[in-house]
Amino acid sequence: MAASSPAKLAIGLVTATALAFFPATAASAAPKPSESELRTQLKKLNTKVDKLIETYNLKRVELAEAQQAAKTAKERLATAERTLAETEQRVAEIARLRYQNGDPAAVPGYLLVENGGSAAILEQVTAEQQALVQGVAKARDDKKKAADEAVALAAEIREDAAEVAEQREEAEDVIDDIKEKLEDLVPFGTGRTSNGSWAPELPSGPDNITPRTRLMREQVRKNFALPFAVGCFRSGAGGEHPLGRACDFMMSTGGSMPTGVNLALGDRIAEWTIKNMDKLGVKYVIWKQRINHGSGWRGMSNRGSITENHFDHVHISMH
Question: Of the four listed, 10, 24, 276, 312, which is most buried by Cβ atoms within 10 Å?
Answer without folding.
Answer: 312
